[in-house]
Amino acid sequence: MAKRQLPEFIAPFKLARQRQSLQGGLPLARMSRLADEPQQGEAEVRLEFGYDDMGVPHMRGHVSATVQLRCQRCMDAMPLTLDLDVELGFAMNDEQARELSAMYEPCVLSEDHVSLSELIEDEILLGLPAVPMHAEDGCQPWLEQSRAEQELQVQEEKAERKNPFAVLAGMDLKKDK
What we know:
Structural class: alpha+beta
Shape: elongated
Largest sheet: 5 strands, mixed
Distance between the termini: 104 Å
Strand content: 25-35%
Low-confidence stretches: none
Order of helices and strands: EHEEEEHEEHHH
Mean pLDDT: 85
Strand order of the largest sheet: 2-3-4-5-6
Radius of gyration: 29 Å
């Protein structure tokens, strides 16, 4: 069974009024801000729209995707799998956004329609680590080079280190009686 392709644009307030849900895939290639590395595949998205008890239109759901990043330790490409929970509260202006419950991430909409790809891309970007790196044993060339450099440094330090008592060897320590 083929995965349902999600629309590029959605009307969040309308979807919330109708208590709709969306489930399917969004191509990562559409998400231009992830373009530091070529992206392949899709983000799997499951979203539910509605109003909470306080009358706040919201979107709740889950996003999972495997994105390609550049490891900042070895500078090789690396895949990173993300599983993100999403809770957005929709507002028409900044004042409404400030009044939202802390359980929602505010999303101010200036138009009726918004790009679903951009919304999901924002969530993916927020879920990325500040400094992406392989697990410590995942950067093999760097790890081997680093160990060799550490061993060389230890050997150099031992060679440079002088015996503090070496100065005593040159002194005449015979006692005159």
